[in-house]
Amino acid sequence: MSMDELMDFDEVMDLYEPVLGLEVHVELNTASKMFCSCSTAFGAEPNSQTCPVCLGLPGALPVVNAKAVESAIRIGLALNCSIADWCRFARKNYFYPDMTKNFQTSQYDEPLCFDGSVDIEVDQQTYTIPIERAHMEEDAGKSVHRGSSTGRITGAAYSLMDYNRAGVPLIEIVTRPVMGTGAAAPEVARAYVTFLRDMIRALGVSDVRMEQGSLRCDANVSLMPKGSTTLGTRTETKNVNSLRSIAKALRYEICRQGAILARGGTVTQETRHWHEDGAYTSAGRSKEQAEDYRYFPEPDLVPVAPSRTWVDELRATIPLNPTMRRAALREAWGFTENQMRDAVAAQAVDLIEATIEAGCSPQAAAKWWMTELTRRANADGLGLDELPITGAQVAQVQELVDEGLINDKVARQVFEAVLAGDGAPRAIVESRGLAMVADTSALQEAVDAVIADNPDVAAKIRDGKVQAVGALIGAVMGRMSGKADAAKVRELILETLTEGN
Amino acid sequence: MALTHADVARLAALARIEMTDEELAHTAGQLDTILDAVAAVSQVASADVAPTSHALALTNVMRADEVKPSLPVDAVLAMAPATEDERIRVPRILQEEDE
Amino acid sequence: MTVWTRMSATDLAGLIASGEASSEEVTKAHLDRVAAVDPQVHAFLHVDAERALDAARRVDQKRAAGEPLSPLAGVPVGVKDAFTLVDTPTTAGSKILEGWRPPYTATVVQRLLDADMVVIGKTNMDEFAMGSSTENSAYGPTHNPWDLDRVPGGSGGGSAAALAAFEVPVTIGSDTGGSIRQPAAVTGTVGVKPTYGSSSRYGLIAMASSLDQPGPCARTVLDAALLHQVMSGHDPRDSTSIDLPGPDVVSAARRCDVTGMRIGIVKEFGGDGYAPGVERRFAEAVETLADAGAEIVEVSCPHFPVALGAYYLIMPSEVSSNLARFDAMRYGHRVGDDGTRSVEQVMRLSRGAGLGAETKRRIILGTYALSSGYYDAYYGSAQKVRTLIIQDFTAAFEKVDVLVSPTTPTTAFRLGERVDDPMAMYKADLCTIPSNLAGNAAASFPAGLAPEDGLPVGVQVMAPPMRDDLLYQVGAVLEASLQARWGGPLLDQISQEGVR
């Protein structure tokens, strides 16, 4: 589908330095909207969550949702931002049928949170992302388009509006130009948005689901000739709906802009749309003139002036940021870098943490989540966190192992049963008689029988070739249908043979 | 400063108001008169004066995050010039691409 | 036969409370008066007789059942069409809202209903409250009952004319630059713009949010005070609503005493452009206050002459944004949606056809004042002048308790006289605008008739924020002493020939 000429990425990197700018919109998970008391619940009947305020009816007035301000401040604090002593909302004026007032209530030159920065890690290299601002605003309604074959806006005969989303609180987080990332630029952008998602999820202020639109990213990029300090013309890519496509879209834009610049052309400052299916960007309709939003202070609202006491109280609620938290957890758990990276990649950190909190050792927790349960999740096409098992249940299984009631092999059967919804691990072990035979007489009988069956192996062991014991253990386990503790069996075989001496 | 016919046409487009050439010309003349009359404002407003956007000195007027009943869908749709499938129908949107 | 329509709201409420009159017969009398004179005055855009009579009968039942009644229970009231009333046509004088029935009621209107007042209809106004003559109403002008060829002022000409024509004893209005006070002045009635934030704007169709303020209109000072008390108070749905108890305006109106009060005459308001009759009646009013024991001083408010300019930048800026919602998508009159046109074209056509000339003018002026490259020179500068106006008031109120001036430089002008001369029209609000910019309380009271044309003149009183009580204290003294001089209420001198 793409008709753009592209330059090889590595060649672009030889000539140019990419400069990133990321604008991320986060829909807060408050119960009610930013300026009215309508529900924000997702998926309701069209236009059933609207009122005079969010419909922009004549005479209606906004009142700020205190929880949204609180969430905005907490996001700002987690981004190491300064929190304004006093700031106002502003009206951003432009006409669009999804905006009921034909202005968006937003913030302009007085954002609530400003001048922050966060460190993110890509391939063991740390990059500092400068945050310009995080401000409060409201979302717009949703439209569906009719009368075109594709259901798209282009070529549609008319559109249908649902204003349930109009007025849902949004936080817009804007970076300053991010420089010095070189060829890592696409991955840095992806890592930054991943960081935001994890951090905001940890704060509990948003569902941050890109696929549902509660986390949206506009990716700006420009190219600067190596050695130059003059910023190039940037493009803004919208419709980037997954973490993966952030990196892909940026890589595409870098290659496209590189090709233009290399043949002496100029990049047009424009909005581009990412097409996930064809993996390319396309230009938006060129505007006859630049938008003039005519921002001015929102006269229907009074300034927000968070007290220092309030800000300090909120500061105390900020969890460690994900990078720091991972480092702290790795330290506490005694994981290697690789182990930790694998756990992060598998999105297992929270699950392992919950398992450890329930009393399991870090290594055992990691072992179960990263092997057996990962295998199960992959087989079922699920994410680890979607498996119907909790950290506490995994810890209980390990507890049974530690008690010597089951071994690792039986533990796998127990996981199977828990995932099938058969109940708690201990109850499963009891009801199915999976507990290992602790009765030494039965075990001794088996050991004696195996030794009698394998006199030559027994002789080797008696001669000091202790490693040969493995063959006998296997045979005993076979006789016991696996319901024996291998360590115990080994001990008993050696004891028996020594006694016989 | 005199506003041209084209200036007023640009402003009318920005404000989404259809105006005839005659209206544009007439409005341009009137706006000039008004702008002349208000010119004293920028002379009085010296750099050392702080702007006031609101006479009221209130801050931090907020409400608790509580859901209250919305309007019935029927009442919302009843106001609209055109509806379809519980939604408000609007003419085609000229836009860049799918959002 | 008792002429209910000539009585004050206070007296009517007293008779209804005592059972000497029923709200139903009082309401009926006013509806009859509306039917008789409104074809000439055109103060009302919508009258709902059935609903009014139902409400009146409910009040009578309440009284019969011995339930407690509020001080204005059973009294008919007119509501400026800028306020929403559920399921009742509400147009704000604009074509674009023709046929719109709001699904909710404005807070101040709800307070009237909660106080068992009987809303008989919606009064005419300049479109979206923009004008000083009510000639900008899309539904035709209102006529001044003193002279039907004259304007009743604006934007709330309907609310003022309805009082002067004895169609209703009290009405409510909204004041952005003088829309309550200026019509009051030119119709010989009382109009009060309360302190900004003391009466709720929720449900008032916004013109300029930082300036708009609902307020009472009446024929007597005490009626205005009682209505003021009913309609004002904190509203959690208006972020700019003050969460403090308001001053006791009713007691102030009853007190009728200005002994020792320091009253400042604004030096800047007078002279060139002021009609001689206006200056003469104003001087008499001041004399009256001095005779009543007030101390009169002259005060300079050097920036007041620039207030008009600042207002004509701030107000249109806010207007351009507030009126953007009238795009005929979710409600309102849609034009040109024939299936071929884009949403942008249909919005343009609907707004082009649905909005009047003055509204368009102000939207375009405001769009310009806020636009990139001009913001600082226009909107920014105007906000600085606003600071200077507030400073002028603050300095003045350190010296005096209240300020006084003529309400408007001239008496009512002729219909059509200023329609195509915006600056001449705007100058009608010269004296009233500073109080909107600064947010303080202000009112207009009748000061007599100008000798040259026999038309009413108003005197404006301005008080510090949240001292609305002072307005009523001064107003009551003016009313009592001037009525002693005239031998009765000013409105008794109205020629009833014009309005039959």
Highlighted features:
heterotrimer, A: 501 residues, alpha+beta, Arc Repressor Mutant, subunit A, 9-stranded mixed beta sheet, 16 helices, 15 strands, 19% strand, elongated, C: 500 residues, alpha/beta, Amidase signature (AS) enzymes, 2 domains, 11-stranded mixed beta sheet, 13% strand, globular
Protein described:
The complex is a heterotrimer of chains A (501), B (99) and C (500). By secondary structure, chain A is α+β, with helices and mostly antiparallel strands. Chain A is built from 16 helices and 15 strands. Chain A folds into three domains: 9-288, no CATH class; 320-432, no CATH class; 440-500, Arc Repressor Mutant, subunit A (Orthogonal Bundle). In chain A, helix 8 (349-357) crosses helix 10 and helix 9 (362-380) crosses helix 10. In chain A, 45% of the residues are buried. The mean pLDDT of chain A is 91. The two termini of chain B are 41 Å apart. Chain B is flat, with a radius of gyration of 23 Å. Chain B is built from four helices and three strands; from the N terminus they run H-H-H-E-H-E-E. A two-stranded antiparallel sheet of chain B has the order 2-3. Chain C is an alpha/beta fold and 500 residues long. Helix content of chain C is 40%, strand content 13%. Chain C has two domains: 4-303 and 406-493, Amidase signature (AS) enzymes (Alpha-Beta Complex), CATH 3.90.1300; 305-385, no CATH class. Chain C is built from 16 helices and eleven strands. Chains B and C meet through helix 1, helix 2, helix 3, helix 4 and strand 3 of B and helix 10, helix 11, helix 12, helix 13 and helix 14 of C.
SSE map:
The complex is a heterotrimer of chains A (501), B (99) and C (500).
Chain A (H helix, E strand, L loop, with lengths): L8 H7 E12 L36 E2 H13 L3 E2 L6 E4 L9 E4 L6 E10 L2 E14 L3 E5 L11 E5 L6 E7 L9 H19 L11 E11 L9 E6 L2 H20 L7 E6 L4 E4 L12 E2 L10 H8 L6 H12 L3 H9 L3 H9 L4 H19 L10 H12 L5 H12 L5 H8 L7 H14 L1 H8 L6 H11 L6 H15 L1
Parallel strand pairs in A: 12-13
Antiparallel strand pairs in A: 1-10, 1-11, 3-6, 4-5, 4-15, 6-7, 7-10, 8-9, 11-12, 13-14
Helix pairs in contact in A: 1-4, 3-4, 8-9, 8-10, 9-10, 10-11, 13-15, 13-16, 15-16
Chain B lengths: L4 H10 L6 H17 L2 H5 L17 E2 L9 H7 L3 E2 L2 E5 L8
Chain C lengths: L8 H10 L4 H19 L2 E4 L1 H16 L11 E5 L26 H8 L3 E6 L33 H8 L5 E6 L5 H7 L2 E4 L19 E6 L2 H11 L17 H7 L6 E5 L9 H16 L3 E5 L4 H19 L20 H12 L2 H14 L5 H24 L2 E5 L15 H5 L6 H6 L2 E9 L6 E8 L4 H19 L14
Parallel strand pairs in C: 2-3, 2-4, 7-8, 7-9
Antiparallel strand pairs in C: 1-3, 4-6, 5-6, 5-10, 9-11, 10-11
Helix pairs in contact in C: 2-3, 7-8, 8-16, 10-12, 10-13
